Amino acid sequence: MTHGSPNPRANKAVIPAAGMGTRFLPATKAMPKEMLPVVDMPAIQYVVAEAKAAGLDDVLMITGRSKRSLEDHFDRVPALEHTLELKGDFGKLDKIQEATNLGNIHFVRQNDALGLGHAVLCAKQHVGREPFAVLLGDDLINEREDLLERMIDVQQEKGGSVIALMEVPRENISAYGVAEVSALEGSTGDVVRVTGLVEKPDADLAPSNLAVIGRYVLSPAVFDVLERTEPGRGNEIQLTDALQVLAEGEGEGFGVHAVVFSGKRYDTGDKLSYLQAVIELACDRDDLGPGLRPWLKDFADAL
Predict the structure, then answer these.
(1) Can you tell me the distance from the alpha carbon of 67 to that of 62, in angstroms, rounded to the nearest whole number?
(2) The pLDDT of residue 211
(3) CB of 229 closer than 8 Å to CB of 237
């Protein structure tokens, strides 16, 4: 715990992974969208690694039907490990053990696909009465960024809940939850108070161009609110609706702040952004970048 802070520090992460991935059909007909490879690692592993880097090594995944391969990926495979050892291929052995060593990973089923708010509610028993992080598997944050750690610090300092916001062009704003914010006296520029939230508003009705992205550090008070939240847009229990109640309310666990993020983020639920993530992350790697970057330039020049 940070010296001088009265609030406990979040140490658990919840990763909702029950979605059907229809935007990537037919690839996701028999494979979870979270297992789509980004270069040579499934998207979900980047998210778990981000949680671990922020000090969250107790991870709960909310899964659904046909998600067994997620559990298998983070499990040991003794036969494969033994084969690699015999071949002396310790580089590959390290890579497959990386997933197993990312922390204590637990799984719980969301039996009915009733929305993100319902998925978070499925974590109530595991989380208990302490703050916790929620990481959406569709959003990949570049590993050089410390967004999640920053959010955990802000939540510990200010209490309540903390969300991540990012500036989005007005013409795209209707695809997101959007925040109404006010500046905080004496705060650095990237932290604001959230006064309202709207789920997927029309561009001309949006209160700002600050979109909610898939990182949250939530007060356990969110569970009490979610249990009372009626289904909203899409007949689903929306986390945005619960956060609106927390932003308007007062008392223990209420209040919502935000960290405005300006770093690298990829939406792997969107085909174009997914392809950009694969290319950018591959270009960044020592083993692939030197060969890929000049080829990419030649390819683009020839178009």
Answers:
(1) 10
(2) 92
(3) yes
* 10, 58 Cβ separation under 8 angstroms: no
pLDDT of residue 112: 81
pLDDT in tens, 21-62: 788 889 888 888 899 999 999 999 999 999 999 999 899 999
**Do residues 220 and 129 touch, judged by C-beta distance below 8 A?**
yes
**Is residue 105 packed enough to be buried (19+ CB in 10 Å), middle (13-18) or exposed (0-12)?**
buried
Quickly list DSSP for the chain: --TT--SPPP-EEEEEE----GGGTTTTSSS-GGGSEETTEEHHHHHHHHHHHTT--EEEEEE-TT-HHHHHHTS--HHHHHHHHHHT-HHHHHHHHHHHTT-EEEEEE-SS---HHHHHHTTHHHH-SS-EEEE-TTEEE-TT--HHHHHHHHHHHH-SEEEEEEE--GGGGGGSEEEEEEE-TT--TTEEEEEEEEES--GGG-S-SEEEEEEEEE-THHHHHHHHPPP-GGGS--HHHHHHHHHH--STT--EEEEEP-S-EEETTSHHHHHHHHHHHHHTSTTTHHHHHHHHHHHHHH-
Helices 90-100, 78-87: axis angle to 10 degrees equals 160
Structure tokens at 15: 């990763």
Of 220 and 6, the structure prediction assigns the larger pLDDT to 220
Average pLDDT, the chain: 89
- How far apart, in whole angstroms, are the C-alpha atoms of residue 94 and residue 90? 6
Peptide bond into 220 cis (omega under 30): no
203 pLDDT more than 90: no
* Claim: this prediction has a pTM higher than 0.85: yes
- The Cα–Cα gap between 119 and 18 comes to 8
Provide the token pair at 18.
């029950």
φ/ψ of residue 193, rounded to 5: -95, 135
Using only C-alpha atoms, what is the Rg of the chain? Answer: 20
